[in-house]
Design brief:
Layout (H helix, E strand, L loop, with lengths): L2 H16 L3 H14 L3 H18 L2 H18 L2 H17 L3 H13 L4 H20 L3 H17 L3 H17 L3 H18 L6 H16 L3 H17 L3 H17 L3 H18 L2 H17 L3 H18 L2 H17 L3 H17 L18 E3 L5 E3 L2
Antiparallel strand pairs: 1-2
């Protein structure tokens, strides 16, 4: 298969993919990969396969194609191709919650400056790196990366990147409990979709609606949360976007739990858990198990709550997700206080404070810890943050 035929077949696959015929598109692209003798065409088709598998939540396949793409980039001996392939390798590892590897590949990208294409990719590299630091609960570095990604987006007038960074910032502020900013950023992302997103994939709209739903729930605006989550889920189902379906199911379950409707919440958590397990989103699994634990606590089934905590703790330790561990120690503290088991209670109080110290989650102004309750925060240019009050 020559250069022109390769191009035609790639375009054919893209057309099928955009009209939601994903499996047909994948077959076309795989044929190109087997038959094309054009390395640049092969590189491009691998990029299409990586994106498609990412959106379907087939992260192990995404990683497999990213590794093949690096070999193709080396064959082409072009620094731009190499940077792009390392970015795909970083993103695959980030999705598989291999955060240290993702950060390492991002650093490789930043050290491999080629030409203008590499410079345009720097924003995406910074975003992926920020997501990985956030997965490890290294908040200051995560914020630095997100701010950098935002600067690249503004300098290159890249609205799609800006939209993605705003969603990540929404997630960031949700985690450190500044719920006003957690809502502000996905609302900004939704505005970008409305103003510029006519030709964009619907996933951008779905993503911003999901992050708005999470913030609304945290703010106690449960009807608004439900509306946004339903809209996001509708798009996720249309597009076969498994990762987003899992997140929406988790959000639905959390909304029902906030209404203390545990019987409706449990099956949603179960559905979310099975997709998270299938796609390998271990960070998502920790969130699901935290929700399940809180449901058992509402029902005063404390031994069952402790079983869920044990599973979540194993995952959080494996990933190095310190915020997950902090939340689990906090829940254990409440359980052992109720059970009047003083030795276990003290143990978890100590571990909770160790987590706060490790994450440097305290205000430089008042010395109180950050992220215990909803508080407006202000970030300094050095990415340290403090209570606005």
């Amino acid at each position: 298969m020559g250069q022109d035929q390769t191009k035609q077949q790639i375009e054919k696959g893209l057309h099928l993919y955009q009209s939601n015929q994903t499996e047909k598109a994948l077959r076309v692209w795989m044929r190109v990969l087997e038959k094309s003798a054009d390395p640049a065409g092969r590189f491009r088709v691998l990029g299409c396969l990586i994106t498609a598998h990412a959106e379907m939540g087939r992260y192990k396949d995404m990683l497999k194609f990213a590794v093949v793409q690096i070999d193709t980039a080396r064959e082409l001996e072009d620094p731009d191709y190499l940077t792009e392939s390392y970015l795909n390798l970083a993103r695959s590892n980030e999705k598989l919650c291999e955060f240290q590897k993702a950060i390492s590949y991002c650093k490789t990208c930043l050290n491999m400056q080629g030409t203008t294409v590499s410079l345009q990719l720097n924003g995406q590299v910074s975003l992926s790196m920020g997501n990985a630091f956030l997965g490890l609960s290294i908040f200051q570095k995560a914020l630095e990366c997100f701010e950098k990604a935002l600067r690249y987006a503004h300098n290159n007038d890249d609205k799609m990147l800006e939209c993605r960074v705003c969603c990540s910032l929404g997630n960031f502020y949700t985690q450190i409990k500044d719920y006003e900013k957690a809502l502000f950023f996905p609302c900004k992302a939704a505005e970008l979709v409305n103003d510029y997103g006519k030709g964009w994939s619907l996933k951008y709209r779905a993503m911003s609606q999901y992050h708005m739903a999470v913030a609304y729930r945290k703010l106690g605006r449960l009807a608004d949360a439900m509306d946004c989550c339903e809209e996001s889920m509708k798009i996720a189902l249309q597009h076969g976007d498994r990762p987003l379906q899992a997140l929406c199911l988790l959000c639905f379950a959390d909304i029902h739990r906030s209404r203390r409707d545990v019987q409706t919440a449990f099956p949603r958590y179960d559905s979310s858990m099975s997709i998270m397990t299938e796609i390998g989103n271990r960070l998502g699994l920790i969130q699901v198990l935290l929700g399940v634990t809180k449901c058992w606590m509402i029902q005063k089934e404390l031994d069952k709550a402790l079983e869920s905590i044990e599973k979540a703790q194993e995952l959080a330790e494996g990933l190095g997700n310190k915020l997950g561990l902090l939340k689990l120690h906090c829940l254990c503290e409440r359980i052992y206080r109720t059970k009047e088991q003083q030795r276990e209670l003290r143990d978890h109080v100590v571990k909770f404070h160790e987590c706060v110290e490790e994450m440097e989650l305290y205000c430089g102004m008042c010395g109180e810890s950050i992220g215990e309750k909803n508080n407006q925060l202000q970030a300094l240019p050095c990415s340290h943050f403090f209570h606005l009050k």
